[in-house]
Every structure is written in structure tokens, then in C-alpha cells.
Amino acid sequence: MNYIKKFFIVLGLAILSQIGMAVYGGAKGFSLETGAHKLSLLAVLILIIFIVGNIYLLMYLGKKLGNCRLFI
Predict the structure, then answer these.
(1) How far apart are CA 28 and CA 30, in angstroms?
(2) Which of 10, 34, 47, 51 lies at a C-alpha separation of 20 to 30 Å from 26?
(3) CB 60 within 8 Å of CB 16
(4) Are residues 13 and 70 in contact, defined by beta-carbon separation less than 8 angstroms?
């Protein structure tokens, strides 16, 4: 039972790690649809903050669950 629980925790963390790239892809697609070839500076800064926040959340959850031994 413990193995199944850890498997789903790792699976959830892996899915959570992909959210940043999905948001970037959506923002880039929206930007291209509107005719802009580049993202605006504000959009890039928001994406950077979102992705860094996502990384922090992954590290926090990994440490809290005992799966991340790198920063302990």
C-alpha cells in the first residue's frame, strides 16, 4: 500500500512540474493568435514568476513528503 501511495505522489509531482510549460505554451499560442511575434515584457515576467513559484512549490512539497533529499 505504501508503494502505491508513493507512486501516486511522484506521479502528481511530475504532473505539477509540467504546468509551467503548459501555461507558457498557452501564452505563446495566444500571443501568436493575436498577431504578435514576441511575448510582451510583462507576460514574460509573469511567466518567470509563475515558473519559479512552481519550482518552489515542487521543492516544498517534495521536502514535506520526504521525497526530496537534495535540499535537506
Answers:
(1) 5
(2) 10
(3) no
(4) no
**Would the pTM of this model clear 0.70, i.e. be above it?**
no
The total number of residues written for the chain in this structure: 72
Alpha carbon distance 70, 53 (integer Å): 18
> Cell numbers of 44, please?
514574460
Pure H helices in the chain: 2-17, 19-33, 41-65
Cell of 60: 516544498
Summarised one tens digit per residue, pLDDT across range 43-55 is 888 888 988 888 8
For residue 72, pLDDT over 70 is answered with no
> Would you say 33 and 41 are in contact if contact means Cβ atoms under 8 Å apart?
no
What is the torsion angle, in degrees rounded to the nearest 10, for the CA atoms of residue 19, residue 24, residue 26 and residue 31?
170
Among the listed residues 26, 72, 20, 25, the one whose alpha carbon sits nearest the alpha carbon of residue 51? 20
Give the Cα separation of 70 and 72 in Å (integer).
6
